[in-house]
Each structure stands twice: as C-alpha cells, then as structure tokens.
Amino acid sequence: MSAPNYTSVIATVVGPDRPGLVELISKAVSGHGGNWEESRFAHLAGQFAGMLRIEIPEANLADLEASLNALAESGLTVSVTRGGDDGESGSGNWTTLNLSLVGQDRPGIVSEVSHALAERGINVEELSTEVESAPMSGELLFRADAELSCPSDLALDELRSALEAIGPELMVELSASD
Q1: Which of 82, 104, 133 corresponds to the end of one domain?
Q2: Residue 88 pLDDT > 50
Q3: Are strands 171-176 and 140-151 parallel, antiparallel or unpaired?
Q4: Element spanning 168, H or E
C-alpha cells in the first residue's frame, strides 16, 4: 500500500462571531485526516473572518469540502481553493523586508501605499492594518505592518522616500528580516 498523495488547500471563512467557531472548523479538518498547517483569524465588525492552510490526503478532499460547506448551517460562509506553487514570484534574488507605517488616516491611503509597492515589483506577503486614536490629539491614525518580498536590488532609500511622499506626517520604518 502506498502513502497517500497530499494536497494543500486554503479555506476562507466568514460569519457572525461567537465562541466555538474554530472548534467547528478544526473538527471538520481533523475528521477527514487533514493537518491544520497555518491560519490567520480576526474579529472584524462583529464578524469572524479568516483563512487557513490545510494539508489533506487527495482522496479526502471532496469530503472535507462538503464538511466545510455544511458549516453554512452554523452561519459560516466557507470557500476552499487548492494551494499553488509556494515559490517566489518572478526570477532572481529576493529579500524579505518588514515595513511599519504610521500616519494620519484618510481614504485611499492603502491604495497609495500598495501602488508604491507594486510599482517597484514588491510583493506583499502579509499585511495587517488598523485605525486608532492618537494618544494626545485623538485624531485617527492609520497603522500598517507588512512583510514584503522585494527584488534584492531594491533601493531602500528610494522606497522610503516614495512612501513618505504619500503624506507629510507618514512615518516609515523598513528593516530586513532574518
């Protein structure tokens, strides 16, 4: 008997937040021989939202999808997509950078930041954003933390200048990841 052929899938989950949702999802995964590899979940505007990567025997995939889709009875919307190649995009040498931004919030700031990154061939690997009140003034501050995959010949000073040009009070911190 040969070893099962495993496949990687990504499941996205959204629904009204309440205790026990992660347990429902994990039972469906483990009940079909799947291995929960990694996940990101958050409470957003009263909703439970997230995604997870599962390694599952190919023969069990259809049953897993059916079990996850049955979670609609619990108010969850689930979408399952096969994973792709986990290699770096493009060719050549890549480096990983951590980006932290803080500045006055306004509509369009994410669009402007993502445009500056895409224009330089930078891939956003992870992104976390929030809006919070400034400690002294109470004005709304936009905060973003990202892990970026960048061409190794990227000019960091030029990237920093381009990001700082988005807003007069935008503070930019770039650091290489180990």
Answers
A1: 82
A2: no
A3: unpaired
A4: none
